[in-house]
Amino acid sequence: MTLPSHNPRSLGAWRKLDKHFQQLKNTTISQLFELEESRLERFSVNWEDFYLDFSKNRCSQKTIELLIELANESELGKAMDDYFSGKSINVTENRAVLHTALRKINKDPIYIEGKNILTRVESRKEKMFNLSEKILNGKWRGYTGKPVETIVNIGIGGSDLGPAFVYEALEFYRQRLKIRFLSNVDGDHSQEVLKDLDPATTLFVVVSKTFTTQETLTNAVTVRDWFRKSAPRSAVAKHFIAVSTNVAACQAFGIHPQNILPMDDWVGGRFSLWSTVGISICLAIGPENFDLLLKGAGLMDEHFKEASFDKNIPVLLALISIWYNSFWHAESEAIIPYSQYLRNLPTYLQQSFMESNGKAIDRNGNQVDYQTGPIIWGGSGTNSQHAFFQLIHQGTKLIPADFISFKHSLHSMKDHHQKLLANFIAQTQALMQGKSLEVVKRELEVSGYERHWIERLSPYKVFEGNRPTNTILIERLTPKTLGSLIAMYEHKIFVKGILWNIFSFDQWGVELGKQLASKVLSDIQGHTSENHDSSTRELIRRIK
Known about the structure:
Layout: H1 12-24, H2 29-35, H3 39-42, E1 44-47, E2 50-53, H4 61-73, H5 76-85, E3 111-112, E4 115-116, H6 117-136, E5 150-154, H7 158-169, E6 178-182, H8 187-194, E7 202-207, H9 214-228, H10 236-239, E8 240-243, H11 247-253, E9 260-261, H12 279-285, H13 287-306, H14 313-327, E10 332-337, H15 345-357, E11 375-378, H16 389-394, E12 401-406, H17 414-433, H18 437-446, H19 451-457, E13 469-474, H20 479-500, H21 511-524, H22 534-543
Helix pairs in contact: 1-4, 4-14, 7-12, 7-15, 12-13, 13-20, 14-20, 15-20
């Protein structure tokens, strides 16, 4: 076993946290501010362009100390060393986990099978940058001699969600190319993506590590057939590039070997946007900005490696999340970015978190008897305030939430931005403070309501408060700060997996549905007749 392996419930710190929870559970966040001097100073971190305020949480200084004790007993420090040094911490697939190598700030070597992988990382990045520059400056010409105007990224999972999210988030920095994303095997989706494109000025990027992913290959073949209706067979090489390890399959598809960007098995799909998988991002914002994205992530890597746990942003966020998930039994976490550019951050993080830590078997092969892997969801503020905030404020569920915003806007819309930030700040205050019955009655009385209406309405207007939030305020949305933000959440995932004693970097849970889909497809197409359950048989019958 490469990683340390401890059942967290067997550790002394976990038992202390169990006892501490019973002592603290009826203390409100507002009371904690009164009880603890300098709470904000102790419960905040300034780093680079980031300010984290985690003071509005149902935890005391003692809670944080015990959570750090749990991290130490779990040997988090050793696990971090294994993570960054290239040991095979993805044990069930016998792979290293080295997406961090793709954005490494210092160039100290990392060896896999006796070879320094940083040399390969640099050469692949250089190839991607050169290819991107050629396309961006118009030197790449299609089969009619016209330059490329539109890129279509064909991929699914991490080959789609990461590039699509970053493209959208950095729209302000977009250069001349238009980018579209084709992921769903739903034929309606492919036709909508293709319907107004000019084949002569469109370049397709097929992203599939093995070049066998059913959804991606189905879409790629459909796109190629569409393209061939107006172009000769030889033109495929001028309009398709690939990101894959399967060179032979790419060539058989019609892609020129020079236009195949390789990738490595030590980069997991949901952490792959930093690699050649991110070529659509590079084409959208240019190599210089892509480099800044990498730099921001690399800086967060350094912070994560070097900062003490009590001032380490990813570690603190992970520990607080474990506190709610495993002790308060909170089943979900909300991500609320107060930026329309980041409106799909919750969707992107759903895959990162839930595919990584949605596990019920520990690193010793045993069933866990504690909560892991909360549901991740959310949306952009202030839109969310008019959607699901009712549930967070007055519902029956405990939903810890991350509020994220930027001190400065990109378009200098001062009035808009001040109102946005006012809501950003006020919502965390409201979630913490709430509004008591006495205050509600007084407000209704001042508004002129009659006594019987005051008694009738008051219960509905009470806010319990004591709803926990983390506030992350960043100077400005740039490629660099976005890189840091994404890396922050990646490391939060890692810490939680270590402390829960689960493997975060495999995803066997996606396999069974794929296997059964192949059998069902054969039945639908009439090739076989599998022995299905009665419900499945009837559904197949109804769609044949």
